[in-house]
Write a structure and sequence with these properties.
This protein has 7 helices and 10 strands. It has helices at 45-53, 75-85, 101-111, 116-129, 145-157, 175-192, 203-208; strands spanning 2-14, 17-30, 34-38, 60-65, 68-69, 86-89, 163-167, 195-199, 211-216, 219-222. The strands form 2 sheets. Strands 6-7-8-3-9-10 form a 6-stranded mixed sheet, sandwiched between helices. Strands 2-1-4-5 form a 4-stranded antiparallel sheet, covered by helices on one side.
Length: 223
C-alpha cells in the first residue's frame, strides 16, 4: 500500500489571521519502508500524521491510498482504513488505567469486531515479542515508561496494520530506552513489511530511518 499526498495543505483560523501549517506537501510513503519527519515544535509534524491517518481533513489537496483519495472514502471505508491499515503510537502511551495491559491491547481488535479470544491470543503473542508478556495482567501504573510504550506498540500492531505512524514516541523516555523503542519499531517494520513514519526531534530516530524529511515553514523537504 502507498500513501501519496498531492498539494496537501492545512490552515487554521486564528481570529482574523490564517495560520499556514502545511503549504502544499507532495510526498509518497511506501509500505515496507521507514521514514523520519523532523522539525522544531509547532511546525505541523503531528498535523501531518493526523491527516495521513484520516483522523483530520486537509484544507486543500489530496491523500491517496493506492490511488484513491481518502476524502472520497465512505464512512465505512474510512473506519476500516483507520482500524485495519493504520497503527498509531504517541508520545504518551494513552493506556486506560482501569484496564490491564492485555485488556488495553485487545481494544483495536474488539472495535474491529474480532472475538475476545482471538484478540487475546494475538495480544499475548505481541506482548511476548515486545518483551512485556509478564506484564499482561498488570495495570499501566505498575509499568515503567518504556514498558508502557511497548504495550502501546503492541496495541497499535494488533490489527496487523500496513503503516505504523508514531508521533514523538521517544519524547517521554530517556536516551537508552528511547533507542530500544526505535529499534523495536524497525524490527517490526522488517518482520511485517510494514511502513513506519515517525515524527521526532530525536537524532537517533532520524539516523535510523531509511528516508528522512524536514518539515519547515509548511514545506516538507527530503534530507
Amino acid at each position: 500500500m502507498d500513501i501519496v499526498t498531492k498539494g496537501l495543505k492545512k490552515y487554521f483560523k486564528q481570529g482574523e489571521k490564517t495560520l499556514v501549517v502545511l503549504d502544499g506537501i507532495n510526498v509518497r510513503f511506501q509500505q515496507g519502508k521507514t521514514y523520519a519527519i523532523t522539525g522544531v515544535s509547532g511546525t505541523g509534524k503531528s498535523t501531518l500524521l493526523h491527516l495521513l491517518a484520516g483522523i483530520d481533513e486537509p484544507t486543500a489537496g489530496s491523500i491517496e491510498i493506492d490511488g484513491k483519495d481518502l476524502l472520497s472514502f465512505s464512512p465505512k471505508e474510512k473506519e476500516d482504513f483507520f482500524n485495519q491499515d493504520i497503527g498509531l503510537v504517541f508520545q504518551s502511551s494513552y493506556l486506560i488505567s482501569e484496564l490491564t495491559v492485555l485488556e488495553n491491547v485487545v481494544i483495536p481488535g474488539m472495535i474491529f469486531g474480532k472475538s475476545f479470544s482471538l484478540c487475546s491470543e494475538r495480544a499475548l503473542y505481541l506482548l511476548k515479542e515486545l518483551g512485556v508478556l509478564e506484564k499482561a495482567h498488570s495495570f499501566p501504573r505498575e509499568l515503567s515508561g518504556g514498558q508502557q510504550q511497548r504495550v502501546a506498540i503492541a496495541r497499535a500492531l494488533l490489527n496487523e496494520p500496513k503503516f505504523l505512524l508514531a508521533d514523538e514516541p521517544t519524547g517521554n523516555l530517556d536516551i537508552k530506552i528511547g533507542k530500544e523503542i526505535v529499534d523495536l519499531l524497525l524490527e517490526c517494520s522488517e518482520k511485517r513489511s510494514m511502513g513506519v513514519i515517525i515524527s521526532s526531534h530525536d537524532p537517533y530516530v532520524a539516523q535510523s530511518m531509511g528516508q528522512k524529511f524536514k518539515l519547515e515553514n509548511g514545506n516538507l523537504s527530503q534530507l
